[in-house]
Structure formats: structure tokens, C-alpha cells
Write a structure and sequence with these properties.
Strand order of the largest sheet: 3-8-6
Distance between the termini: 43 Å
Radius of gyration: 19 Å
Number of strands: 8
């Protein structure tokens, strides 16, 4: 990955904190493959494996999935190839801020069917990859046309239940239909933690969503949820979890080790 320019010594998550997840998937012709691969942060790797196992069982199609170093870290080339990918040490497109992909905390799914859409000052939309314009209509069932397949809307819940609760299709501008992620605060916190600490944190994060979604099923179907980091910040009376961890790791870990008291804080008001 270093030789391909996908990671360097300045990356917030070093190679030893990254894991390659290999999984089965079905392509758009229904053929099964056993060589799908994405690279993610160590603590989330088992849950990413669960996501792709679930997609395989659902028959959700994936065009291909190879690590981004195959494309030399070039996100445009990867998207054009309709490649599902995860880790890539790069900034957010058009900015100098690091992407969640640089933390191994984001996954891009079928970029052709789920394009990245930006809007110019004149209101014109630009699709990346360009061929993604054919998927501007996000309806799965359309009169007189074949059903749309491989679109991210169908698997939002699958990703959320395994920790990737934030979807770029909810954004106003840009809209990133392919993109599922953790929050930046969470990724920053986990990158500072030991692997064992990050693993426990993510376990609690996933369990929180599972419990709260059962307690408040209607609110969660409408995406009106507070995630586990909001609970922790409430308990610790802080605005930033990663800054709180940097200041006092033990205090944050003590809060994580406590069994959470689930209440109305599950739901965003």
C-alpha cells in the first residue's frame, strides 16, 4: 500500500491498525465470487465482514471489490471501474480535509449505481463516475423500465446495524450515494485508542444501535437516532469525544466500560 501511495507514515491509522476483509459476493449476473476484499480499521473489520455476508445472503449485487491500491489510490479510477472499496489515505474530494476513508472508517458501494453528485453555482449536477447519471432517478421500481439493482437505499439498515450508521445519500450537497461511514469524531477517537479499546468501543456502539432500534422502532426507521457517541458525550458532559479521550483516556474508557443506561437519549429530538 505504501508503494502504491495509498498509505504513508503520516496517515492517522498505520498499517498495523488496518485489516483486509475477504468476503463472498454476487455480481450483477448472479454469479458468486469468493474474492471480494476491502481494507478497514481493525476494530470494525468483523462487522464489515458481517455486512458483506448479509449482502451476499440478500442477493444484493456487487460489481467488484478490490483494495484501492489496485488503482494506485486513484479514487476516480476506482469509481469508474465500479469498484466497492474502503480504506484510502486521501482528502475529501475538493478539500484539504482528510476523508473518513483515510481512517478505514468508510465504505463506498457500487459507485456506478450510487454516484457522487456535486452541484455547481448554476445548479447543474455533476456525476462521478460520469456514467452514474443514468442512476439519477433513485426509484427502484419505475414504470416501463427494469427494476434498479445494486442501489444503496436497499441496504441502509444492513450497514447501520453493523456500525456504519451514516449514509452520504442523506446529504444535501454533495450527495454521496455510494458512501457509508462512522462519524469523524468517532474515527478520530478510535485512531487514538489501543486496538483493544477501539474494539470495545465499537462493540458498545453497535450494541447501542441494536438496543435503541428495538426500543424505538418507528424513530429508527425514520433515522431519528442519537448514536452511542452522543450518549457518551452526554454522560461525560463534553462536546468532542476525541478531545475528551486525548485529555483523559481513562475517564472515557471508564464510561465505555459501564453498561449504558438507555433512555430517550436514543432518539434525536
Amino acid at each position: 500500500m505504501t508503494q502504491a501511495g495509498v498509505v504513508s507514515a503520516t496517515a492517522p491509522v498505520p498499517c498495523q491498525r488496518l485489516k483486509k476483509v475477504t468476503f463472498h459476493y454476487r455480481d450483477f449476473a448472479g454469479k458468486a465470487h469468493s474474492n471480494g476484499q476491502v481494507v478497514v480499521m481493525d476494530a470494525v473489520a468483523p462487522y464489515v465482514g458481517n455486512i458483506f455476508d448479509a449482502l451476499f445472503k440478500q442477493g444484493f449485487p456487487i460489481h467488484k471489490a478490490v483494495p484501492i491500491e489496485v488503482y494506485g489510490g486513484d479514487d476516480t479510477r476506482s469509481m469508474t471501474a465500479n469498484n466497492t472499496s474502503a480504506f484510502n489515505y486521501r482528502p475529501v474530494a475538493g478539500t484539504g480535509s482528510l476523508s473518513l476513508h483515510a481512517y478505514g472508517a468508510a465504505i463506498d458501494l457500487n459507485p456506478l449505481q450510487n454516484p457522487f453528485v456535486t452541484f455547481g453555482s448554476n445548479g447543474n449536477a455533476k456525476f462521478s463516475p460520469v456514467q452514474g447519471v443514468h442512476y439519477a432517478n433513485r426509484a427502484q421500481y419505475r414504470f416501463g423500465k427494469p427494476n434498479s439493482r445494486g442501489m444503496a437505499e436497499a441496504v441502509i439498515d444492513t450497514f447501520a446495524r453493523h456500525g456504519f450508521q451514516y449514509w452520504g445519500g442523506f446529504w444535501n450537497s454533495p450527495i454521496d450515494y455510494q458512501h457509508f461511514q462512522l462519524t469523524k469524531d468517532m474515527a478520530l477517537t478510535m485512531s487514538k485508542m489501543t486496538p483493544a479499546q477501539a474494539t470495545l468501543f465499537f462493540q458498545r456502539y453497535v450494541a447501542w444501535y441494536d438496543s435503541c432500534s428495538k426500543m424505538y422502532p418507528t424513530a429508527y426507521k425514520q433515522y431519528k437516532f442519537n448514536d452511542y457517541t452522543e450518549y457518551l458525550k452526554h454522560q461525560l458532559s463534553v462536546k468532542s469525544l476525541h478531545l475528551a479521550y486525548s485529555a483523559n483516556p481513562q475517564r472515557v474508557m471508564d464510561a465505555i466500560r459501564l453498561q449504558p443506561v438507555r433512555s430517550a437519549i436514543c432518539v434525536k429530538r
